[in-house]
Amino acid sequence: MNSININGTNFDVKDEELELSLLDYLRERRFLTGTKNGCEKGLCGSCTVAIDDKALRACKTPVKKAVGTRVVTIEGMEGPGGALHPLQKAFMDAGAIQCGFCTPGMVMSSYALLVRDPAPSRDAIRKALRGNLCRCTGYQQIIDAVELAAKVIREQAVSSRPGCEE
Amino acid sequence: MRTDNAFRNDARAKVTGRATYADDVSFAGMLHAVPVYSDYVSAKDLKIDADEARAYPGCVRVITAADVPGSTTFGQIEKDYPIIVTDRIRSWGDVCAIVVADTREAAKAAAALVRITATAIKPVLTIDEALEPGAPVVPSWSDSNIVTHHRLRHGDPEPLFAGCELIMEEDFTTQAIEHAYMEPEAAVCVPRADGVVEVYGSMQHPFSTRRFTAALLGEPLSNVEVYTISVGGGFGGKDDNAAAVCARAALAARLTGRPVKMRYDREWSMRETYKRHPYRLHYKVGVSSEGKVLAVKTTMYADSGAYLSVTPWVTWRSTAQCFGPYSIDNIHADVYGVATNNIFTGAMRGFGAPQVNFAVEQLMDMAAHKLKIHPLGLRRINMVKQDSVTVTGQKLSGHTVSLEDVMNRVVHEIGYRKKYELCSFGKTETDELYGIGLAISYRGASLGAEGMDFCGCIINGQYDGSILLEAGIHENGQGSESTMSIILADELGTDRKRIRYRRSSTSSIPDGGTTVATRGTIMGGSAVVVAAKQYKELLQKHLAERLRCKPEEVTFHDDKIWGLNFEYSLTWEEAMRELFLQRITPYAFGTFQAPPVSWDDTNGQGDAYFTYVYSCQAVELSVDKKTGKVKLLNIVAGHDIGKAINKAMLLGQMFGGVTQGMGMALMEEFVREGGKSPTLNFDKYMIPRTTDLPEMTGIIVENHDPNSLTGAKGIGEPAIELIAPAIANAVYNATGVRYKDMPIRIRPEDLA
Questions:
Q1: Which residues of chain B does A59 touch, with a Cβ-Cβ cutoff of 8 Å?
Q2: Do B479 and A99 touch (CB under 8 A)?
Q3: Which residues of A touch B648 (CB under 8 A)?
Q4: Model-level ipTM above the cut of 0.90
Q5: Which helix (H) or strand (E) is A103 found in, with range?
Q6: What is the pLDDT of residues B678-723, one digit of tens each?
Q7: What are phi and psi of B298, to 5 degrees?
Q8: Does residue B206 sit in the same domain as residue B87?
Q9: Do both B585 and B705 map to the same domain?
Q10: Chain B residues within 8 A of A94 when measuring between CB atoms
Q11: pTM of the model
Q12: pLDDT at B3
């Protein structure tokens, strides 16, 4: 049986589900609607999830390619009891949220960035989020938020893993 | 790092993925609907053969105009937009049928089997073609393709040109722009047992959506209940079409008796929905040797596309603000809306001002260069000041006219004076040309003489001390619910935690007008103040005795209700208990009515708006001489918004508006080729990304506005309307080349 680990839980994938996009699988089969569908062509980044800690577009990832991997969606970023990940907290504090449709993808791309670079420059953040479109914010407060979260994770020596207590 | 005052009631829901948008809503037994388009741009005698589609496994119903119980067409001004086409196709975005099936996949597959035939008609594709004598008339309701014409007659410019030191005659063009909200349109409609159709939709205006839906269904407004849920951006773009998507889903729900979801692909969204009006502007400007603009004549044409939507209002704003924030004694303007068979155009953030500003703010720099006057000096000579008279004959009084101060602050922050001297003007030792540019504007806040302007608010106190708040302004992502909550908390002297913003439905609160025109904070916020005043008076009256003072001596602060000299106080819990014992309902409904405005359509004169937002934006950039590529280096935006209520959100509006304006200036164009478009997703329609932008600085100027009960005006549209000419001016100062067509595309040969 094929299985995918989603937000810490293993799910058996039915054969007929293997051909779905990971986006449809998450939204329609697992009811994880936090991952958003903005263009369905891998162009806007709204559906970004972390697959083995790398930011990937769920709309362009077939389920069969995700078999055997560890997928984290926006729903998996919270810790037990609803503790927010430092990135989530920073997005709130920095005023990085407007309509919020790009936010889950932004958070997941930022998470993958902080895994590989715990102290990114603002330029590095801009490069990492280049594939995530936002029409509301002009990005500046999103970049503030990622910078803030990186600082919190470093200074308070908290884990950047998803689902961990702040 | 700006973290001050960041408050959003929906922030936690949005960072955790819990916020519910229309496509996240599901009901048991829900069907899926998709639209069917034809490939015609203009055609008549539409015939639809849906037999094969109906036979497709899972297809439940194919809906055509023949199934519509109400009106197939609707619109905000002229009811000409076909929610479903009957027999005449006027644009490539027209929806000819709706396919309903068990799954979305089945609906799409069945939709591909619908056969549409019609007799093609030669389409009218440009403003010139539309104006030609004998051109086919596009609108159903007009005998001409000129669908609107606004005149402004202020003084008499013609005799004055002869005495001018400088006469400029210039033409400018602007392009069609897609709103490109991240969330495509979606709606879920549920037929309720009591006969009401519930609508959960991605739309900008629940009440407009209700009007479209009730019209299509042929039912009273009270039969349609539109619920507010998270909306993934609007920017003016989620009215007519987004409402039509809700209406179509509601019709499908009515006809099948089951819940129906209609979620749009990005390509459908871009193909069908209205755009920002492309403009063609001609200006004749006469300036004295001292730099005073003495005479202006302007003619503008806006491409309205196939349907009217709000073209008369968009072009009205272009008329009322036809020469930027300058006081000109002799000016004539004629602004036309012209119908074509292009995808129609309508409301978009900025609403007829960005196009005008693109021309006017370049003209001011052009005049300055030609007369060898500093661009700041030329602006100072002509700009509106306290008690100035605008081109509509309105005396600017009753609020602080702070344009010069706003400009000075931006100039100081970015170091414009020194940096202006460093501009390349086409000459450089290296490959890089440097330029700095700025633009100024004023913007009438709210609807002005466009329409009736009022908004309501409900405060519903609960007996445990918690408070429900709702206002007739809709949350589109801008943070209006948070702003209303902050205003109420301030009015009542309570903790924000005590207040829950209730997401209203169209059946729970009276129509408070649409959330457009930079009116959310000024109208909704003032409505909150009116309701809060009534609410406090009710509490004062009934708590005075307990607090052993006169009603007018009861005060509200520190999350308590106080008697005279702070001797006695009540917690909110105690106060509500007291009201309960007196059998008093702690409830208030308040309406704010905008101060009066006036307009004479024969000469374009009147008090167009009850107040104005004053703005200046400046930009530094470099242009690569070899490639023509523009790199933005620094942006400063300054706006007098009256009063900052939610500072982080205010700055977010500024940065977001500047970014959309920058996209318009340099990147974006919704291409129309033969009435069709190849730019239907983000591979071809390019919007700004993180790496396209420099660091931005927002300057908040606060002169509390007496016309607003909170002192606050607004920021949504001022933020987008002037960075494009600032960029154009900076490009000129870098390259020595003037670009009068948007988007600005610099070819290396221009720089040779």
A1: none
A2: no
A3: 94-95, 141
A4: yes
A5: helix A103-116
A6: 999 999 999 999 999 999 999 999 999 999 999 999 999 999 999 9
A7: -140, 145
A8: yes
A9: no
A10: 1-3, 6, 648
A11: 0.97
A12: 38
